[in-house]
């Protein structure tokens, strides 16, 4: 392993202090196996970044690409960066990153506290309403898939049954 958790955290803190103004970064979090303290040799470095509110998604994507390449060159490990959008479109992921992760750059402590509260609130809402909603979506998708693949599945089942008959007759 190239780094301890603390070493990687220090590298991230220094990196974001150097680059936060350039990329208009408000907050950055280390999350995943590195934050939990048990990365494997093959673990990537998971980072969540809150950019300034005025950036559109295309600009955020370009920034993430630049930061990923720059940081990978520095630490020689795979890096996975996700943006945290303020509409909390991925509440479970954001909760994992912001609440369970390690903050490595915070521009404004008050804004951080407010965003942390929002992450907890969104996750509570999601845990109450999200599972039912997800189940409904999965059921609809499975229904659509079964309709679409029914002829293929029927043919596949026929072939399996035929193969089983062959095995019974020749054993």
UniProtKB/TrEMBL annotation:
It holds the Pfam family Polbeta. CDD domains: NT_KNTase_like (cd05403). This is Nucleotidyltransferases. Residues 17-109 form the Polymerase beta nucleotidyltransferase domain. It comes from the Bacteria.
